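Ticket #4471: structure output looks truncated?

Reporter: J.K.
Steps to reproduce: submitted the chain below (241 residues) through the standard prediction queue, then opened the result file.
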Amino acid sequence: MSAGSSSLAKAAAAFKLANDGLSPFASQLVSDVIKAQRRKESESRAQPTQVSGNTVSKIVDMVQDDEKSERNALVVTLSFYGLLRAEEASMLKWSDVHQSGNMLKLKIRRAKNDQLARGRETFCAWPEGSKRDCLLKRFRARASMRPGLDFVFQNILNGTKLTPSAISGIAKDTLAAAGVSATHHSLRRGRANHLQQSGVDFQAIKETGRWRSDAGLRCYLSDSPRAQGFTVTELGDEVGG
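Returned output as attached by the reporter:
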């Protein structure tokens, strides 16, 4: 039972192939053992981490006056508010980033729900004059002084586009510096749950985050009173007794 359920399933399949199958009793026994191991794994599996808006704000507050610090904080901030996957952040160009008042529009060049490969657009709240807005504008001003830097997130030394793996590593390290053990994907999960708790409906979250299926999004969302139909007033009454 020290082997994982996947390893047990593969071993059972190989044994069946080599021995022309199993008896009904043996097949049932193998099935029960694998199911028991999966239950054991699910009970011990840590719940996925969700990064909060407060953590992202803390990271923005921690930014130092240098290009690398600004870039790393912007990786986290844009990924959180734009619900960006690492590969989407990697492909983001300055020509894909547009601000109109208190709204930021990001063009996603490759999205999982973009079946016609035309690109998708994601809109997020981006208050003018806010700390995250100032961060974006400072970093953009730095980039404008270095001709040829098309991509938003690039290697500071040689100007090459950051890979999805590099984006993930930067996010993880930046979150760790803020005292949070989480991954780049935790940003996407945290923002989706924040939107749900704020009363944004399921379909709007799905469109904003470019999920291809309802089932895919449900894997991200935690149970929430708002998601189950409770209003702000009802939640207040419940808290008040």
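Triage note (M.O.): checked the attachment and the full token line is present. Strands lie at 97-100, 103-108, 120-125.
Status: closed, working as intended.
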